[in-house]
Amino acid sequence: MSDRFAERLLAWYDKHGRHDLPWHHNRNAYRVWVSEIMLQQTQVTTVIPYFLAFMERFPSVRELAGAPVDDVLGHWSGLGYYARARNLQKAAIRVVEDHGGEFPVDQEALEGLPGIGRSTAAAIIAQAHDKRAAILDGNVKRVLARYHAIPGWPGQTSTLTRLWQYAEAHTPDERVRDYTQAIMDLGAMVCTRSRPVCERCPLNEDCIAFRRGETHLYPGPKTKKEKPEKTTWMVILEDENGRIMLERRPPTGIWGGLWSLPELDPAYGPEELREACEQTLGLDCGEPDLISGFRHTFSHYHLHIQPARLPVAKGILIQDRPDRRWVHRDEALGLGLPAPIRTLLTRPGQTTLL
DNA sequence: TATCCGTGGTG
DNA sequence: TCACCAAGGAT
User: Fold this and answer.
1) What is the spatial distance, in angstroms and rounded to an integer, between the CA atom of A320 and the C1' atom of C5?
2) Which residue lies nearest B8, CA-to-C1' measured?
3) Residue A76 and residue A86: Cα distance in Å, rounded?
4) Residues facing residue A263 across a β-bridge
5) CA of residue A108 to C1' of nucleotide C5, angstroms
6) Where are the beta strands (DSSP E) in chain A?
7) A40 and A171 co-located in one domain
């Protein structure tokens, strides 16, 4: 690029950028990698406490590779996108077994690890090694879409291709670590989605969208689709010792690998729940106690959760299955639980009895 | 290419 | 109350 994009950005970064984030200290490839995975589709303020606790428990790639999956998921509980946690540990095991515990330095090898794509690989290269690699995350997409007035939704291949071209072109040969942090900081602090602070932007002079007064038009909107509504029963089974039954969810799909409350087919009516527990779970239960349901919104559908509390008759045992277990509430909260289930178990008073 | 995968903040 | 979306990647 013949303009002074990177130069202006770096000068702004030196004065106003974020230089003190937790992963900026004791910087190494492992810490950079974990932070980048956590930061996928997740804001900095959300990540910080998770990152600190994660590093306390898993200080190096070897401890992560050797940890129980439940421990890793437990530290991810509430962060969302749990495939990131499963892939993180898979990648850690590969780094230990195939690379002697040392992270690959080249982009191709990094992209071969589960959970690491083009942008994350580039971020690791730039942040950990200060070597030239172009990133393209949500911040960069927004900055570039406005600066060059690139129409269309960034998810569209044609739009994405153009964005990558500009991302590559603007990335400098020197100070790549600072540059990648700088353009993300600009997107997060100045070139925000709503009400960008263009007066304080070091790039406003040559920003086409700003000069046209059209920053609100970029990036282009995603084509919206109607979200389907799904319904499910979630049963709180409590035995005479005050323990509740948890069930491990399948490794794929929503909340994959996490512990949650047992689900029953929504086709069962309230009066059939007792029988459903008997047939589905092999449990002899008392009368169901219906709790008011709530709606949980995901990216692509709404889930209507109908909780029901059922007492379990004394002396009844279920067959020993590794994906089911009786736990006290305190113990349950130490496992990887989905956020709404955690809320349900922590603050049952928040919901109203029917 | 389109869809799936979470959660919390925002207007 | 609710649609929209943020440091993407896998399928």
Assistant:
1) 43
2) A46
3) 10
4) A234
5) 30
6) 229-238, 244-248, 259-260, 263-264, 289-290, 294-297, 302-311, 324-327
7) yes
Mean pLDDT score, A236-250? 91
Q: Is the pLDDT of residue A2 over 60?
A: no
Asked whether residue A242 falls in the same domain as residue A198, the answer is no
Last residue of a domain, one of A217, A252, A276: A217
Instruction: With a cut of 60, say whether residue A15 has pLDDT above it.
Output: yes
Residues with CB under 7 A from strand C: A 18, 21, 35-36, 39-44, 81, 83, 87, 114-121, 137-139, 142, 181, 184-185, 187-188, 193, 219, 221-222, 224, 295, 297, 299
Is the CB of residue A306 less than 8 Å from the CB of residue A232?
yes
- Domain residues for the domain of A322 are 229-350
Task: Tell me the one-letter amino acid at A152.
Answer: G
Q: Are A207 and A145 in contact (CB under 8 A)?
A: no
pLDDT digits (tens, 9 = 90+) for A76-95: 999 999 999 999 999 999 99
Q: CA A340 from chain center: how many Å?
A: 15
Q: What would the two tokens of residue A270 be?
A: 């309230």
pLDDT interval class at A105 (50, 70, 90): very high
Residue A59 and residue A201 in one domain: yes
pLDDT by residue (tens digit) across A297-330? 998 899 999 999 999 976 566 666 888 999 998 8
Catalytic, A36? Answer yes
Q: Which amino acid type is present at position A4?
A: R
